[in-house]
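Supplementary Text 2. Reproducibility record for the structural model of the 351-residue chain.

All settings were left at their defaults, and a single model was retained for analysis rather than an ensemble. We include the record here because the model underlies the residue-level annotations in Supplementary Table 4.
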Amino acid sequence: MLRAGRDDDADEIIRLIGDCWAEYPGCVMDLDGEVPELRALATYAAGRGGALWVAEQDGAVAGLICSWPLQDGAWEIGKMYVAKSHRGRGVAHVLAEAAEAYARARGAERMQLWSDTRFDRAHRFYEKRSYVRAGPLRVLGDKSNSIEFAYAKPLVGIAVGPLDAAAAASAERPLAQTLVACVEAGASVSFLLPLSLDKARAFWRDAARGVARGERLLFAAWLDGVIVGTAQIAFAVQENQRHRADLQKLLVHPDARRRGIARRLLAAAEAGAAAADRTLLVLDISPPGGAAEGLYRSAGWQEAGVIPGYALNPDGTPCDTRYFYKRVRAAAGADANAGEEPRPAPALPFR
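Retained model, structure tokens:
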């Protein structure tokens, strides 16, 4: 059962958090010296303009979460813990849904949180909910020698932005789920049916490495806090083609189509390529036709030709491939930067 937390939950909350910290070497609780707010956490959260919720099972606190406003439309998730005995039962998702819904109803545009670098299970949970690594590490200087990752995500509407290497790695699971769903819906994007989630995740791990090496730009799209789309710009590496890049893997989850997400991703990818001084973009479509082709034509892409039987459909049958190209305006100072390495992706728009 989910309910509002109370100050008189303090003993159980302190015990639960202490047990969670004890699972990790070096994590110690100095209650009055470092976390005195746990003695009256409901009052503490309310004092910051937020709230505390607890998940209760058989009269005992099985989990908790807080949420409070920061500034400029951002809200923070804090003090999220679930008892070990209750993990894997959906308790954490119920808590997170409550905190996000509360923030959304009060005008939140994005959610942020900090998580100790040792809490790998928590990281996987946040990443399932489309949070990505965003920003530098935070060193607390406490008795536990805590270093924390920052996570963030846009919460409402459609948001599109570039992912740096850390964000790309943390987005692996939702990006893989989007890829699998698109292939199962008939998209011919280098994969054949059946496409396993593990194989899809391996693809995105490699893409994140490419971002880290400066070989590509990766963009993600969120719809109401969930990653539902992506696109990539892969830089040509040939010495005489440093002005060129390929648009690759522009994907939108079938459940999120017809909302303009693909067009937003395309515009972001083109702008990212231009900012990296790539003035000629190329893409291919297999098989030709369909909504994707209409999108590219309406965005000013020009057809270059068709190669018969160049690729295979997801079911293994041959299909033609149509190539398109588009010239984009380079960023200011492109001539001065000619021949340099591609510029890094700009910061996420929701940090």
